[in-house]
Please model this.
Amino acid sequence: MNTISGYLRQAGTAARFLLLATIVLGLLYPLAVFGAGQLVAPFQANGSIVKDSAGQPAASALIVQAAADSSGTQSPQWFHARPSAVNWDPASSSASNLGPNDPKLLDAVNSNRAAIAAEEGASPSDVPADALTASGSGLDPHISKAYADLQVQRVAKAHGLEANDVQTLVDQQTSSGLEAFLSQPSVNVTLLNLDVARLAANP
Model:
């Protein structure tokens, strides 16, 4: 009987601890983290959702929204993102997994350089490195300031806008301060294209 009662006491203690842990770790802690996120950084906590000119959710600032067809060709009306091994499909995320000594990588870089130079009317030597290779996720919305500057004339012409006005949008979307200090100045293509859409709708 003593053995059975001892087992029952241990089982009762374990059950009480399980209930307490479930309440604290499964309910109170997640609610506290959720509340802190909503209080301190609501934009980031809710997926960094950005809205269009009509005030409707348009995209996440964390994921590139590339205007591309099924073949991977990006529309000339918009600023282009980096190449993507997953064709900018937000349901997927992957790098090309091509090593630096893989001939396929060199072929892709040379092909991208020639295509971008032709599309932008620039010298192949002016095409920045980030325009030639895919990011690790294939969904990175950021490009270098140099790559964004290279695309200004094409985008402005496609929308019938002044190049100076489009360049101003690029400059406004260029990261600065601590963010730029920790990496390098970059431009979020998703946010930039939303700015272009607003400007084109209200020139």
Residues 2-42 form one domain. The longest helix spans residues 2-40. The mean pLDDT is 86. The beta strands are 49-51, 57-60, 142-144, 186-188.
